[in-house]
UniProtKB/TrEMBL annotation:
Segments crossing the lipid bilayer: 30-52, 64-87, 99-120, 127-148, 160-177
Protein name: Small neutral amino acid transporter SnatA (MarC family)
Keyword field: Membrane, Transmembrane, Transmembrane helix
C-alpha cells in the first residue's frame, strides 16, 4: 500500500463529508471544535502508536484483523450508501456536546479506528497519524463550513466517499485473505 493510498483509506473510513452532514447543518463553536479535534487526534495517535500491542492484547493476528477491519469499514460504508449520513441531535448548548456527538461518533468511529490500526500495523504509525490528522482536519473544516446553495452535495459527497470506503474494504479483505 502506498502512503497516498494509506491516507486515502483512513479518510474514506472516517468519511469527513458524512461527519459534517451528521451535525445537520449546525455549526459547532470553536471550543467544541478544538476539544473534539484534540481528543480525536489523541485517540487516533494512541491507536496508531500501540496498534501492534492492541492486536497482541486481543490475541489477533494482523492478517485476521485486516479481514475484520474490512467488514467494519464495508458495513459503515454500505450503511451510508443505503441510508445516507446518519443525522444526530447536536445541541451546541449541551455541556458535553464536544464529546457526544462531535467527538464520538462523528470523528471517532469503529471504521476510522479500524483503518488507523490496519495502516499502523501494515505500514507505519506515522503514516496512520498523518491519515487521521488529515481526516479530522477535513471533518472539522467541513463541520464549520456551510454548504449553502451546494446543499445537495451534503448528501451526495458522503455517499461517494462511502463507496470508496467499500472499495478500500474489499481491498483489505482480499489482502487479508491472501495473507491468511
Amino acid at each position: 500500500m502506498t502512503p497516498f493510498l494509506a491516507v486515502i483509506a483512513i479518510i474514506a473510513a472516517v468519511n469527513p463529508f458524512a461527519a459534517a452532514a451528521r451535525l445537520d447543518g449546525k455549526r459547532p463553536p470553536p471550543r467544541h471544535i478544538i476539544t473534539a479535534g484534540t481528543l480525536s487526534l489523541a485517540i487516533y495517535a494512541l491507536a496508531a502508536a500501540f496498534a501492534g500491542d492492541i492486536l497482541e492484547a486481543l490475541s489477533v493476528e494482523p492478517e485476521s484483523f485486516l479481514v475484520a477491519a474490512a467488514v467494519i469499514i464495508a458495513a459503515s460504508g454500505a450503511a451510508t450508501l443505503a441510508l445516507g449520513p446518519l443525522r444526530l441531535h447536536y445541541d451546541p448548548a449541551s455541556r458535553y456536546a464536544d464529546l457526544v456527538p462531535l467527538a464520538v461518533p462523528v470523528l471517532l468511529g469503529p471504521a476510522g479506528l479500524s483503518a488507523v490500526i490496519v495502516v499502523a500495523s501494515r505500514e507505519s504509525a506515522g503514516l496512520a497519524i498523518v491519515g487521521s490528522l488529515a481526516a479530522v482536519v477535513l471533518c472539522l473544516g467541513l463541520a464549520v463550513a456551510r454548504f449553502g446553495a451546494a446543499a445537495p452535495l451534503a448528501d451526495g459527497l458522503p455517499r461517494l466517499l462511502a463507496g470508496l470506503a467499500v472499495v478500500v474494504a474489499a481491498g483489505f479483505a482480499v489482502d487479508g485473505i491472501r495473507a491468511i
